[in-house]
Amino acid sequence: MAINLQKGQRESINAPKFTIGLGWDTNTSSTGSAFDLDASVFILGDNKKIIADEYFVFYNNLKSPDGAVEHTGDNLTGDGDGDDEQVKVDLSKIDSKVSEISIVVTIHEAEARKQNFGQVRNSFIRIFDTATGADILKYELEEDFSIETAVEFGRIYKKDNNWKFEAVGVGMKGGLQDYLTKYQ
Ligand SMILES: [Ca+2]
Ligand SMILES: [Ca+2]
Predict the structure, then answer these.
(1) Which ligand has the shortest distance to the CA of 71?
(2) Closest ligand to residue 37's CA
(3) Of 6, 25, 40, 52, whose Cβ has the fewest other Cβ atoms within 10 Å?
(4) 21 CA to middle of ligand 1, Å?
(5) Which CATH number applies to 3-183?
(6) 170: closest CA among 102, 77, 79, 99?
(7) Spacing, Cα 28 to ligand 2 middle (Å)
(8) What residue ranges do the domains of the chain occupy?
(9) What is the pTM of this model?
(10) What secondary structure letter does DSSP report for 117?
(11) 7 near 143, Cβ under 8 Å?
């Protein structure tokens, strides 16, 4: 059984190889255009900045240079239950300078399509053991977003040589650019 977290709660990840699953549903009819959400991963050092440009992993840069973080590919619609996009992590390969991994979901062309997270439903982040498939934790975002176009679903960070997950659930209204500015 996965542990269900509330916003702000933290939980240890006791698996060297795990997969981050991200899911959402959207209401395309509410805006008249397709809804494309994208998962992005910022791999950070102690200064809370990406350790190099290539450590921003997203649909156009699917793997970090150390091989530790791999995005499995872009999903254009979010249709259906279960994970819509996945990111695989192998902590045994992670660069020693890394102390945090931030997982952000943004809406592609949100401004042009007049879309925001207020129109997104059933969003969640979950983590499971890649080797066994066993669920480790899940966080369902229950926040009532209205103007946000980018949301940090969670972060994974190293503390005393253990890796833990924090359910974040905080958004920004400037899309992916807000997070690029924050972490670059
Ligand atoms: Ca996508
Ligand atoms: Ca979905």
Answers:
(1) 1
(2) 1
(3) 6
(4) 13
(5) 2.60.60.30
(6) 102
(7) 12
(8) 3-183
(9) 0.94
(10) G
(11) yes
pLDDT (average), residues 80-104: 96
Encoding tokens for residue 110? Answer: 């949100």
Number of H helices, E strands in the chain: 2, 12
Render pLDDT for 14-45 as a digit per residue (tens, 0 to 9): 999 999 999 998 866 666 777 889 999 999 99
Smallest CA-to-CA distance from 89 within 182, 154, 5 is with: 154
123 CA → ligand 2 middle, Å = 8
Ligand nearest to the Cα of 84, by number: 2
| CB-neighbour burial class of residue 151 (10 A; exposed 0-12, middle 13-18, buried 19+) | buried
Q: Looking at the CA of 36, name the nearest ligand.
A: 1
Q: What is the distance between the alpha carbons of residues 178 and 67, in angstroms, rounded to a whole number?
A: 26
How far, in Å, are 11, 100, 112 from residue 107 at the CA level?
Answer: 27, 23, 11
Ligand 2 centre from 77 Cα, in Å? 8
**From the CA of 83, how far away is ligand 1's center (Å)?**
12
